[in-house]
Design brief:
107 residues; 4 helices; mainly alpha; 0% strand
């Protein structure tokens, strides 16, 4: 009888531990913003998009668990890509949206 209980209980304990580790990893990654997203944009003259990028980066640094900062940052990076023709900003916008979806998958 004890062997049957152990055979049933051990997989349940293992699954529970794995789930706990996954939840911990997800919550830690959601609370720390991606450092590359917070890198300043270098330009000779600050445009409206540059100001929006700086504002969104500041909002993320103040509250990295709010997806709105990441959404605003993505929109600003896309505008910067259109202004400059440097479409590497689109990749930064995509990374920003990925961070936003980690925090709030349905937003």
């Amino acid at each position: 009888m004890r062997k049957k209980i152990l055979i049933i209980a051990i997989p349940g304990i293992i699954i529970g531990c794995v789930l706990a580790l996954l939840i911990t990893a997800i919550s830690k990654s959601a609370s720390a913003p991606n450092a590359a997203l917070l890198q300043p944009v270098n330009s000779a003259q600050a445009t409206a998009a540059d100001k929006q990028i700086q504002s969104a980066q500041s909002a993320i640094q103040k509250n990295s668990s709010d997806p709105r900062g990441y959404n605003t940052l993505a929109a600003a990076f896309m505008q910067k890509a259109r202004e400059t023709g440097d479409f590497s900003f689109n990749a930064r916008a995509e990374e920003s949206l990925k961070e936003s979806f980690k925090i709030a998958p349905d937003n």
